[in-house]
Amino acid sequence: MDQDLSANATFSKAVLLVEDNEDDILVTQRAFNKADKFQGRLFVAVDGEEALDFIHNKNTYKNKQDYPRPDIILLDINLPKLNGLEFLEIIKSDPKYNDIPVVILSSSENELDINQSYASGAASYLAKPVSFKKFMDIVNTFNDYWLLNRFPKR
Amino acid sequence: MTNEHHLDPIIVEIDPDIEDLVPNFINKRKHDIEAVKEAVKNKDSEFIKITAHKMKGSCGLYGFTGLSAIARDIENKVKAGLLEEIPDDLELAKDYLARLKPVVKE
Fold first, then answer.
1. Cβ neighbours around A132 below 10 Å, total
2. Model confidence pLDDT, tens digit, residues A30-42
3. Taking the model in full, what pTM does it have?
4. Model ipTM over 0.90
5. Using CB atoms and an 8 Å cut-off, which of residues 27-86 of chain A contact chain B?
6. Which among B14, B18, B60 has the least Cβ separation from residue A130?
7. With contact defined as beta carbons under 8 Å apart, do A12 and A146 qualify?
């Protein structure tokens, strides 16, 4: 059993945030640092290509100990170079990585983006909220929810 | 509109956990507004779309819902090809920032 479901349990997994907006990165890091139940590591990639490098341990992410395979990916859609949906389709069509849950975190209200995210294999689609407090609520709910999940053995 | 009314403050409560991030955040939005103004002149719709979309999301996360709503309008207008209407939104955005008084929540 690799999940401790007691009240004191903490979510201690590697989360990869794929986000190009510096302000959103700062606030997300702040929220995860502040979250009671998050004891894992939050990594950041600033576009889809960098996220692929991270997952494949290429270029600046060669060291597997420093840059482990993420247990969950938190993905924005509007990204430079390779956008979020293109990145999602690439990893979901790769048997080595298609079991990593991908949660979309976007300010897009476009129904097409939502539909395409799920059709391409997203586990969830979260809208960016309108206050830090609401964002904290989402991060705490995110950690509570994934704490209850079982993950593939590595 | 009198000048007095024009300068009525817009008070926004800021979470103490992000207080230190706010001054730089606001400065960057001022730069965004100027950059979008230039982009309207240059008819650079792609830049306007990307910048407005980012502003919409970030301003929401930081609690500046009024500015987020203006950015949403800009995003919708550029998608509809209504570039000539965007300078009015940019004036609203500048006015919002001029009147903005962030207050840290107790």
1. 23
2. 999 999 888 889 9
3. 0.90
4. no
5. 27, 30, 34, 78
6. B60
7. no
